[in-house]
Specification:
This protein is an alpha/beta fold. Among the domains are: 84 residues, Arc Repressor Mutant, subunit A (Orthogonal Bundle); 139 residues, Periplasmic binding protein-like II (D-Maltodextrin-Binding Protein, domain 2, 3-Layer(aba) Sandwich), CATH 3.40.190. The protein has 13 helices and 12 strands. The strands form 2 sheets. Strands 3, 4, 5, 6, 7, 8, 9, 10, 11 and 12 form a 10-stranded mixed beta sheet that branches. Strands 1-2 form a two-stranded antiparallel ribbon. Helix 1 packs across helix 2 and helix 1 crosses helix 4. It is elongated and about 90 Å long.
Length: 330
């Protein structure tokens, strides 16, 4: 290849490959067929390959041409998406946000109206998904990620801790405690509900509290916290869940701590994540500051719930033990 082909060459090539003829590509690009032909000829010279088989006025791709078409069409689509996004950003203020599904539904969603009331000129697009953003390929301003905060190369800002404890319906708790008040014995009789994507799961929690002999652990395994919480509300067992996500049920009395003596395990769990180059974007800064204020208010509410149920908090200083027990994110 003599030199790197121009973007214009790829645009003409992609149009011909997609439309199947020089004239149709020329109409789409608002240029003459001879101009398109010249760009294709130059591209083939630069690659030293035949990219098309010419059959009268129709053109079909060679094997090498097909390979180049697959690559160039993806690249051109990314550029066009970026252009549309830039135009939209110019016309209005839009925040593109990815969030863990259960956190988005149970915590962020009910609070977004407060943000929009303060910033009525802004649009928000929320993508609730369990996988992290590829910021180099996706149009996204920031993530609210659930995890250990071990994402190298990004700006990280802790937002909320997880406050994890065994929860169940009052009727289910009363039935268990009628037989024994010993946590070891209670959990031996209980059906345990596990959130598959949670960082703090029953195996880790039982070992940390030195509770042995629980042979029926993970008898119900759910991959979404919302479903696990609902099963516990329905009296199906004891769920090891986040007070952050189950606050509404605990506040209303639909769920209660299994026993105050066990306490709450606390560790940093929810983070704002974005490339370092995004930190000074006004939309990122304003939303992150609002999110931090909402998290502080939530923290005060959680302290009230903890005092109301006479619970104690057990801080995990280092997350290495938690990472070793469960490396899954949601």
């Amino acid at each position: 290849m003599s030199r790197e082909p121009s973007l214009n060459g790829y645009l003409h090539f992609e149009a011909v490959a997609r439309r199947g003829s020089l004239s149709k590509a020329a109409d789409e690009l608002s240029v003459s067929p001879s101009a398109v032909s010249q760009q294709i000829r130059l591209l083939e010279q630069q690659y030293g390959l035949k990219l098309f088989r010419r059959e009268g006025r129709n053109m079909s791709l060679t094997i090498e041409g097909e390979q180049l078409f697959q690559a160039s069409s993806v690249a051109i689509r990314i550029l066009r998406d970026a252009r549309r996004h830039l135009g939209k950003t110019h016309e209005s203020r839009r925040l593109n946000l990815r969030v863990a599904p259960s956190f988005g539904v149970r915590w962020l969603g009910p609070r977004l109206s407060g943000f929009l009331a303060k910033n009525p000129e802004w649009d928000i697009r929320v993508d609730a998904a369990p996988y992290p953003t590829d910021f180099d390929r996706e149009v996204m301003d920031l993530d609210i990620r659930y995890g250990l905060g071990n994402w190298a190369g990004y700006h990280l800002r802790p937002i909320l801790p997880d406050l994890v404890l065994p929860l169940c319906s009052p009727a289910y708790r009363d039935r268990l405690l009628a037989e024994t008040s010993d946590p070891d014995s209670v959990l031996q009789e209980a059906k345990l509900i596990d959130s598959a994507r949670a960082l703090c799961q029953w195996d880790y929690w039982l070992a940390r509290h030195e509770i042995a002999g629980v042979s029926n652990r993970k008898s119900i395994l759910i991959n979404r916290s919302s479903m696990a919480i609902q099963l516990a509300v329905d009296g199906m067992g004891v769920v090891l869940e986040s007070l952050t996500l189950a606050a509404q049920e605990v506040r209303s009395g639909a769920l209660v701590p299994l026993t105050p003596s066990i306490g709450v395990v606390s560790f940093p769990a929810y983070w704002v994540v974005c490339p370092n180059r995004y930190v000074n974007r006004r939309i990122v800064k304003v939303f992150t500051d609002w999110l931090s204020a909402a998290a502080e208010a939530h923290g005060r509410d959680m302290q009230k719930l903890i005092r109301r149920h006479k619970l104690t908090i057990q801080e995990i200083d280092g997350l290495s033990e938690l990472a070793a027990s469960n490396e899954t994110e949601v």
